[in-house]
Amino acid sequence: MLRSMYSGISGMKNFQSKLDVLGNNIANVNTYGFKKGRTTFKDLVSQQISGASAPNGNRGGVNPKQVGLGSQLSTIDTIHTQGSLQTTGRPLDLSISGDGYFVVSDGTNDFYTRAGNFYLDQNGTLVNSDGLNVQDINGANITIPTDAESFSIGNDGSVTYIQNGILNTTPQQIAISKFANNGGLEKAGSNLYQETTNSGAANVVNAGTAGAGEIVAGTLEMSNVDLSEEFTEMIVAQRGFQANTRIITTSDEILQELVNLKR
Question: Domain spans of the chain?
Answer without folding.
Answer: 3-49+65-80+225-259, 85-221
